[in-house]
Amino acid sequence: MPEHDPNSAHTERCDVLIVGGGPAGASAAAVLAERGHQVVLLERARHPRFHIGESLLPANLPLFERLGVAAAIGSIGVPKRGAQFHAHADARTQRFAFADSWNPRLPLAYQVRRSQFDEILIRRAAALGARVVEECRARAVDFTDPECVHVRAERAGTERAFAARYLIDASGRDTFLGNRLGEKRRDRRHASCAMFAHFADARCETDALRCGDIALFWFEHGWLWFIPLPDGISSVGAVVWPSYMKSRSQDLRTFFLQTLARAPALNARLAGARLASDVEATGSYSYRCAHTHGARHLIIGDAYSFVDPVFSSGVLFAMVGGIAAGEALDECLREPGRKRRALRRFKRTVRRGPRRFAWFIHHMTRPAMQALFLAPRNALRMREALLSLLSGDIFADTPIGPSLRAFQGLYYLTALTMPRRSLRALAHRRREVRVSSA
Asked: Are residues 88 and 367 in contact, defined by beta-carbon separation less than 8 angstroms?
């Protein structure tokens, strides 16, 4: 039975209803509102609010220009010109400078507080004409009306009803539609858990060109991140195997600090630092939805797919998906006869990011991958192509595909030179997938 009354005078109507006010939802709202459509954006929290995922990629910068927020983002960010990789086992370190990538026009990105970053994007959408309704949580959806999508929401204890020609799910890891439509699928190749917190007064690089670098540290139970943020704050986290997380016998704060101490290079940066936030944790979390869209809905950002954050790709995928959704629905609303083509183009765009990154993420903790990252070669321009991948330059026409495939071939050859370590790593991952499934 329909859960709505189509004749209710209290139903709020619009062209597009967006659930979620993070980078994906705000980007879609900005594009649609700028083009004159009636847009309502429902955000369950009130901005500014805390969110993890503070490291952006160089490929984000053209998107900031597209949305008219480049200057505002630059004013709150720490310039990020490269990425550092550290190996605990043999103390080796390698730095990748984005300026050395295939496309030198993308030389830097930013490290940002997501509370500030997300607020800039959502306020920009409002300034362009989107109606932003904060502290409003979508509760139910009904697709039985052939003309509109109906959504019931709740704000301050009061039920709200919305009817829209199209719905965009940008609800992040809440996966509003994925759960309700039964389309959310856990990615069993990426079994991992995460812990994270903010620190004050950590030691950063003194070199001005390196002080904003993201640093990643491999250790025996996964990898750790260090992200310098404005005002002397650093984001620090650990992505670990499920069995390691399940071994915890003490409180989360103590377990997290003990985990960080397992990486001496990172521990040195935290000497004298103090926790500036609570420690938070999340369980096994990689997933994707079976479809990117339906007859009257689109799914973008983390609501569609979430992968291991080792390459800091989350905000880029969210904004690319948001802009693609906005452009696709603009075409659907203006020229309904071109709907199928517009949605096919949207689907290709949204799937491209996770697919291009998936292989590298899946192999990132393997011994052969660490060996190649710590001693990179530039035969067939493989290093430049890898840097373009790290920059997020995968949605343009930069011709990195053949070089990345050559890198993949080199990876398998390298794995053959260390058969025992490679087989142990493969067996370990399979055990962790079973632990995660259990």
From this structure: no
Which long-range contacts does 293-297 make (Cβ < 8 Å, 24+ apart)? 293/343, 293/346, 293/347, 294/143, 294/181, 295/143, 296/143, 296/148, 296/149, 296/165, 296/166, 296/167, 297/143, 297/149, 297/166, 297/167, 297/168, 297/169, 297/177
The distance of Cα 24 from the centroid of its chain, to the nearest Å, equals 10
- Nearest Cα to 316, choosing from 348, 349, 285, 284? 349
Identify the DSSP state of 216: E
Amino acid letter for position 294? G
pTM: 0.94
Q: Are strands 93-97 and 222-228 parallel, antiparallel or unpaired?
A: unpaired
Q: Quick one: tokens of 55? A: 């490291």
Question: Cβ atoms within 10 A of the Cβ of 357, count?
Answer: 21
pLDDT in tens, 381-409: 999 999 999 999 999 889 999 999 999 99
Percentage above 90 pLDDT, the chain: 83
pLDDT in tens, 277-319: 999 998 766 899 999 999 999 999 999 999 888 899 999 999 9
